[in-house]
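It is worth pausing here to work through a concrete case rather than discussing structure prediction in the abstract. The textbook approach is simple: state the sequence, then state the predicted structure, then interpret. We follow exactly that order.
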Amino acid sequence: MSVTSVNSRASVQTAIATASRKTGIDFNYLLGQAQVESGLKADARAGTSSATGLYQFIEQSWLGVVKQHGAEHGLSWAADSIKQTSNGRYVVSDPAARTAILNMRSDPQTAALMAAEHASDNKARLEDSLGRPATGTDLYMAHFLGLGGADKFLSAMADSPDRTGAGMFPAAARANRSVFYASNGQPRTLSEIYSRFAGKLDQGAAAGGATGAASDGLNGSFDAAARAFTDGDNEVVLGNGAVDNDRHWVQNTLAQLNVSRPDGAAATDPLGRRIDPLRPTPENARLAYLMLANLGA
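Step two, the predicted structure:
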């Protein structure tokens, strides 16, 4: 992987972490969704639709979310430029402004913020409709089928998980045959479709470098990325060659960031050896990066 691609990937992860912190939408979910949708490529474009950017927003969906949430994030000019017609379509009368607004789909900071706001809206409405907390997979169903379709899907699955999905969503099944049918032509059940989406999200999150599952219940906090390291007992190899648990890894990293010892004493690793904060170990760099992103650095 080239230095340019590494830097690009890091900037995308930073943008997603910032969006998570600002909106409360789970970092792992946002990362998993971006990986699935675009492979974390900020300039990704679909060949068969207007879908563009990290989260593959089509034009109307993008204009709608910018109209609703743009002003909250310093984009009042864009939100004010977008009008909604009587039939619900979003339009921008100034061609130059329209182009500028649509081009923001390829800006990772803006795309991540709007994706997080869109997910937050869907989360609230799904939870109100379903009467239970929404999971990352629920949100991805809303992304895939639309909010109304996801509500219909999830409600039906709760009552009849073995019901086939193609019969309920014939148009979606025709456009996405591999989702609704197995390779042998057997139609998949609602629970099978849901499970496959959950697996896809989790695989995407893992490929993007997430520290936890993207499909689980949404805790509403960026801190999930850090808690995934501190709550478990999995052994990891520290930069100094010692083997310790995840909690010590976090403590080690915090010490290197000069935030774990407010008394000013020299920071040490779990074996009592002094840590040089100017020379963080490579193994700690990823977690340090996430923590810095959480602090807005």
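Step three, interpretation. The longest strand covers residues 82-84. The radius of gyration is 21 Å.
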